[in-house]
Amino acid sequence: MKQTTNSILMIRPVAFRMNEQTAVNNYYQKVLDGLLPATVNAKAQQEFDAFVEKLTAVDVDVTVVDDTLNPDTPDSIFPNNWISFHENGDVALYPMFAENRRHERREEILDLLEEKGFVIHNIIDYTSAEEDGFFLEGTGSLLLDRANAKAYCALSPRADEELFIEFCEDFDYAPVIFEAFQTVDSERKLIYHTNVMMCLGETFAVICSDCIDDKKERKMVLDNLKENGKEIVLITEAQMNNFAGNMLEVRGANDKRYLVMSAAAHQSLTPKQIEQLEKHAEILSSSLDTIEACGGGSARCMMAEIFLPRN
């Protein structure tokens, strides 16, 4: 199984704003005072377009789908939370915590991918769990080490343990389960998505291990990464707050590896960390300030990797 892909799905926003329904447990979101919603969306579109341009310039195959005005989906720019694509032609659909995010699941996106020559054999649908109040938000909640058949999950209101185990059984992954915290107003609170504090590359892992307060759990997670030969790049909680954990390794022209992150994440890294990462992949960063502030997500969340076979 490959850990990285050249193909990415991205959703261009039409009414991006701070989503009041996700702000209850996403402590990264901020209200940008004095900006009209139209201005926020225009800024987000500019950041989105510049980001896509940087990816396509190095020959990453980006499928861009425009969001629709109806229904209202302020977070549609983060498609990796509702869908994941797998090498055997399976597609997973995930149950979402915020009601207005459930409308992001659009069947015509699958049709479009099939028109592009991607092959979909099977859809595994976990969304009925929403009715019972259980959630698992795609590759936001679960980090897949596809090559080593391991899945990492920091439990939270958006990542239910039983659902995660069910996913691992369905897709043949060994579960690595832990809790990760951040300090909010001097209180330790669960981090809403695993991919904020951790990134898995082919030969490296970026992780804020300080977030894993339980020492045994922390050791268990780090041991799992080391066992699979990953070079571990530790980041601080301050760097994580600049989205330095929210990165994704992709492949460009001639299978060259790129580590994609926001400008804020890139600027927060030390020269030593940059040196460590550049041994594995070339860094590609783009300014996502508005998207990060209002959306509480960054570069990784904006890219849903497509591993599907092609005709």
Q: What share of residues is helical?
A: 25-40%
Distance between the termini: 18 Å
CATH homologous superfamily, by name? L-arginine/glycine Amidinotransferase, Chain A
The name of the CATH topology is L-arginine/glycine Amidinotransferase, Chain A
Mean pLDDT metric: 93
> What would you call the shape?
globular
Oligomeric state of the chains? single chain
Q: Report on the biggest sheet.
A: 3 strands, mixed
Order the strands across the largest sheet as they lie in space.
Answer: 2-1-17
Layout of strands and helices, then pairs:
Layout: E1 7-12, H1 37-57, E2 61-66, E3 83-85, E4 90-93, H2 107-115, E5 122-125, H3 138-141, E6 142-145, E7 150-154, H4 161-171, E8 174-178, E9 181-184, E10 187-190, E11 198-200, E12 204-207, H5 215-227, E13 231-234, H6 237-241, E14 248-251, E15 257-262, H7 263-268, H8 271-278, E16 282-286, H9 289-295, E17 304-305
Parallel strand pairs: 1-2, 4-5, 7-8, 12-13, 15-16
Antiparallel strand pairs: 1-17, 3-4, 6-7, 9-10, 11-12, 14-15
Protein name: Amidinotransferase
Organism: Flavobacterium sinopsychrotolerans
InterPro entries: Amdntrnsf_FN0238
3D structure, described in words:
The chain is built from nine helices and 17 strands. The protein starts with 6 loop residues before the first strand and ends in a 6-residue tail after the last strand. With 311 residues, it is of the alpha/beta class. The longest helix has 21 residues, at 37-57. The model has no long low-confidence stretch (mean pLDDT 93). The protein has a single domain (7-305), classed as L-arginine/glycine Amidinotransferase, Chain A, CATH 3.75.10. A three-stranded mixed β-sheet has the order 2-1-17, covered by helices on one side. A three-stranded mixed β-sheet has the order 3-4-5, with no helix packed on it.
